[in-house]
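Section handout 9: paired folding examples.
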Amino acid sequence: MKYIEAFSKRNKSLPFLFSYRRCPYAMRARMVLIYANIDFELIEISLKSKPPEMLNFSPKGTVPVLIIDEQIIDESMDIIDWVLNQNPNIEINTQRPQEKQLAQEIIKENDTSFKKALDAYKYSIQYPEKNIDQLFKEATIFLDYLETKLSRTSFLVNDYLTFVDIAIFPFVRQLVNVNKERFLKLNLKGVEKWLKVLIGSDLFKNAMKKPG
């Protein structure tokens, strides 16, 4: 398989990342590594047949998994934290205490309540007790919250891109892709503009390139 060949031929002097292209957790890890200009080897895996090489490093079997020398980081937000710690003055970092607190609040809400609601909406067939409109409404509570933030600033915690936008964007994009027409009927102009900027960015396009 391709991942075995890629793993065997990897540049062992570089960090390497086990990833799955469409996974939002892996997506945000790739985006922040690319933004920080950190050279790394990308190992694209199949979730249906997880490579033993990855499981040897991280038995829990989820992506992303970043290996730096002897260090193993197998949570996406821990990868983001590692990048920010390597580059504390990087532009996407938040410096003011109130911004850091807001960043934590937004990411926590995304990774808990919103992710649960998003999965229920995506896999609505597993929730026969609820109709699709109800599941969508529950998922969009978070979007209303983001719209409020984006009515004040161009991005979620400031007028420039921060790691918070990178961490949240892949999940919101995933919700929109379930049914774009349903999303557009919400008329969330701030969220729409924010998504358009990020989807059109070179950062996102580079993060979504298929490994050669």
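Moving on to protein 2 of 2.
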Amino acid sequence: MSLFWRIFGLNALVLGAATALLLWAPVTVSVPVLLTEAVILVGGLAVMLVANAALLRVGLAPLERLTREMTTVDLLRPGQRLPVPGSGGVAELIRTFNDMLDRLEAERATSSARALSAQESERRRVAQELHDEVGQSMTAVLLGLKRAADRAPEPLRAELQQAQEITRSSLDEVRRLARRLRPGVLEDLGLVSALTSLSDDFATHTGLTVRRRLDADLPALDRQTELVLYRVAQEGLTNAARHAEATRVDLALRRVPEGVALSVEDDGRGVGVAREGAGIRGMRERALLSGAALDITRGRDGGTRVTLTVPSAGRPA
């Protein structure tokens, strides 16, 4: 039954019941209206309105659920679907809405894959230029300063050596940025070694304590999934240093029945004061790309816990 006929039928039922009561009930209306007659008429009107409202509430409840779902749906949290209540116009509308979400999620996953692939390509290009162009130029400057310092008199030699140290520190920073943009350790030595190097570098430059628990007997993962795990760990550590006001971060990579689970947990301010910014949205994009499940919850010590669970090779996403 279509929505029109459902609403029409509900109203016809209420009005028919009211007409039947007027026809067969021993009630008359005097002129002027008596108090008891007015009470009976107003009471009947109230009962009719309440019954009509209740019946319309039941009939339009699926549309209200659909409206709430439309306002809260997020393509970065796939799988949100409404149950289809039988058949008819409302059921067809909800079924069409669910099909639309299927298409939008598929298109979002495809576009995210293209965007992240382009982003990684641009990162590799920038890292290569930093290493080859800027790094080599700064190395040449460093060697020139060393030769000049060796031939310079004592007052000038100290200044040149200070310039050497500044240049050497800048060169180290450029190399560190290049490693962050293009994790060569991940390509050469694998995920566990890359996460170990990442956590050591993070602890050195932020002063935070990083505790690691990285399982070595991981199931087979493709290169794309390993890169997703690495980038989510990188973003989780960065958020802990920038926003959480943490003193300690726990980084864990372990084997689970679903595949592989990565967790980054800090002892900072917690999720109650953190807003979902570009970093978390980026992690959700990467999780969507690899068919993984991303959970951001409260940690054991009141901080934030980011957990990414990815299926291993051969398991359905």
